[in-house]
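We close this part of the discussion by returning to an individual protein. Part of our work consisted of pairing the sequence of a single chain with a tokenised description of its backbone. What the numbers capture is local backbone geometry rather than side-chain detail. The amino acid sequence and the backbone structure tokens for this protein are reproduced below.
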Amino acid sequence: MDLEILPAEFFVLLGPSGCGKTTLLRSIAGLEQPTNGEIWLGEQRIDQMPPYRRRVNTVFQAYALFPYLTVRQNIAFGLEMEGKKPRSPEVTSRVDEMLELVGLTDFGSRKPGQLSGGQQQRVALARALAKNPDVLLLDEPLSALDLKLRREMQTELKRIQVESGITFVFVTHDQEEAMSMGDRIAVFNRGRIAQLGEPRELYGSPANRFVAEFIGEMNFLTVSAQPGGVRTADGAHLHDGLLSEPVTGSAPVTIGIRPEHLRVAEGGELSGEVVASQFIGTDLRLCVSIGPTESVWARVDAGYHGPSAVGSELSLTPDPGKAQVVRS
């Protein structure tokens, strides 16, 4: 791969387990040694440098806090390892600054065992930031938190990154985390970057089927070109106005439609029986069988009161231009 991460950027490495994202992160940190290629930090090549000389710090999935040290002592640890005296004005001032940054000013005297998971995560973050690295590497640091706390910490991490002005490189397999925090996202697949771009670009214009499946939800239909549009494998016709681009040639192609781009409409192009109905608070998810071999999911507003029970007949139509051709 050939990858450039910009200064003061929140950059996300996103992909399934085993795709290579953590290996890349550990290579930047110096915990893995690449067999080929070069890694540069600004104007300095770092892949041949020992980890302790690199201007990077890492926050691991397991926070690795010292249980017998207070929060203040944990944050000061890296500074003391550089030879700075404990309780010196320099160390005290820096620890106070980090406690304020992560919102733990009143928790400095506590031990890690007296903190919640989210607070421990903030301590690990403060400890890593205390040495003022040029780059902070984060290896799935939110994965152990519950959903509500994880979402709160996503907002906090983004705020801290903006306020500190430090480049964050964040590894995750959670596309919601990536989309909510990343300035840019590199989607990994089998050791390669499948697509690199801003969240809106990846969601709205996926480069291939892997990205389309991994970022959000997508319905896939096999279609063949016919005059004025396409026909699905089960015989439904979609006219050109519903497609993001014309489909030509004799070979079947795959199109993708996001569930939120399917709306209920009498006489819609995609009709069939509701085979699953899921109420998820803000939305109602409906799966409609449109033929013997194909079905689609639609997301409708929770206030929808039309046919939705399993066994109901329902017609759907894609929003204009939202049925997009998906490359392999």
Remarks:
- The chain has eight helices and 18 strands.
- The CA atoms of residues 283 and 301 lie 5 Å apart.
- The radius of gyration is 25 Å.
